[in-house]
Amino acid sequence: MSDSLERLYLAVLAARDLDPATSRTARLFQRGPSKMAKKLAEEAIEVVIDAVNGDTDAVIRESADLLYNLTVLWASAGVRPEDVWREMTRREDMLGIAEKLPKSPMKLPKVASPRVAARRPIVALEGRAARKRH
Ligand SMILES: N=c1c2ncn([C@@H]3O[C@H](COP(=O)(O)OP(=O)(O)OP(=O)(O)O)[C@@H](O)[C@H]3O)c2ncn1[C@@H]1O[C@H](COP(=O)(O)O)[C@@H](O)[C@H]1O
After folding, report:
1. Among residues 26, 21, 12, which one has the least CA distance to residue 72?
2. What is the pLDDT of residues 95-113, one digit of tens each?
3. Which domain holds residue 52?
4. What ipTM, to 2 d.p.?
5. With a 6 A CB cut-off, is 45 part of the ligand 1 pocket?
6. How far, in Å, are 105, 114, 124, 126 from residue 134 at the CA level?
7. Among 42, 63, 79, which residue terminates a domain?
8. What gap in Å lies between CA 13 and CA 124, rounded to an integer?
9. Do 73 and 88 have their domain in common?
10. DSSP 8-state secondary structure symbol assigned to residue 22
11. Ligand 1 atom closest to Cα of 25?
12. Which one of 38, 60, 79 terminates a domain?
């Protein structure tokens, strides 16, 4: 899946400078981050509604729209797909699954995975201040 997203991201970057009259992506860039955010939020809500209604095909279609609008927002924010994959790998090493770190400091599992054991101590970010683990 990450290959598809990376190809889409490159296509979005390439479309950024096209004619907004013919390119939706160029039009989104022309209208700016608030329009991109609005479209992304709309797609997220459409996915939620379709999922609650049990419309699997619609969830698939709207999820593709959601991922498209997410890559447009990434491009606008200067975020690359590999930046997100790196963060997901960091969480996977920390927690065993790619999940958001808890807000409050957590007790790391006693037996860290070999990859975690070889790594520098993980620093859980709280708000904007990174706190060193002892
Ligand atoms: N992957 C996508 C893609 N996925 C979804 N969409 C568009 O996103 C829209 C989904 O949002 P909506 O449901 O809000 O559709 P809408 O109601 O018509 O949108 P609005 O009228 O509300 O703006 C669809 O109409 C699709 O046209 C996409 N538009 C473009 N791409 C790719 O982006 C690249 C650049 O394409 P252009 O933007 O056409 O240059 C190409 O690789 C395209 O394949």
Report:
1. 12
2. 776 666 677 765 555 545 5
3. 2-79
4. 0.88
5. no
6. 11, 20, 12, 15
7. 79
8. 32
9. no
10. T
11. 38
12. 79
CA of 25 to the centre of ligand 1 (A): 7
Residue-wise DSSP of 64-120: HHHHHHHHHHHHHHT--HHHHHHHHHHHHHHHSSS-PPPSS--PPPSS--HHHHHSP
66: how many CB neighbours lie within 10 A of its CB?
20
Instruction: Check whether residue 70 and residue 88 sit in a common domain.
Output: no
The 10s digit of each residue's pLDDT in 59-93 is 999 999 999 999 999 999 999 999 999 999 999 98
- How far lies 41's CA from each of 44, 47, 48, 104, in Å? 5, 10, 11, 27
Overall domain count for the chain: 2
Q: Which tokens in the block code for residue 33?
A: 């981050």
Quick check: CB of 11 below 6 Å from ligand 1?
yes
Q: Are residues 29 and 67 in the same domain?
A: yes
- Helices 33-52 and 24-31: angle between axes, nearest 10 degrees: 120
pTM score above 0.95 = no
Query: Which ligand 1 atom sits closest to the C-alpha of 18?
Result: 40
